[in-house]
């Protein structure tokens, strides 16, 4: 190799650099902190996706009166799920009633006839 070759390659990076895992070079505590941050970012992303999904569902549910039994059942089931998340709904009797009512609503929504007829 001539001096010119050395000068040319000195300022030039190779096309492929070896990948280095930074996690392997950190201490155990730093790795755990990094993992916790990554997990928290994932949880926050999931929560944001859930919030956006819930907002879209609510926009659909609030658009006006139900036109079918299925629409009415979905609205009622949504409200029951919201209630189920409250402290008052933790009573085992209420939990069972909520589950049974949601099952009834879904069954009624699948039925082609009006429940009162």
Provide a descriptive summary of the structure in words.
The protein is mainly α. The chain has two domains: about 25-65; about 65-115. Helices cover about 65% and strands about 0% of the residues. It contains four helices and no strands. The chain has helices at about 5-10, 30-60, 70-85, 90-110. The longest helix is centred in the middle third of the chain and has 34 residues, at about 30-60. The mean pLDDT is about 80.
Radius of gyration: 29 Å
The largest pleated sheet is described as:
none
Number of helices: 4
Helical content, roughly?
A: 55-70%
Mean pLDDT: 81
Structural class: mainly alpha
Q: What proportion of the residues form beta strands (DSSP E)?
A: under 5%
- Tell me how many strands there are: 0
**What's the overall geometry?**
elongated
Low-confidence stretches: none
How many distinct folded domains? 2
Distance N to C terminus: 96 Å
Which keywords apply here?
mainly alpha, 4 helices
Short description:
By secondary structure, this protein is mainly alpha-helical.
Task: Give the arrangement of secondary structure elements.
Elements lengths: L2 H8 L17 H34 L7 H16 L7 H19 L7
Helix pairs in contact: 3-4
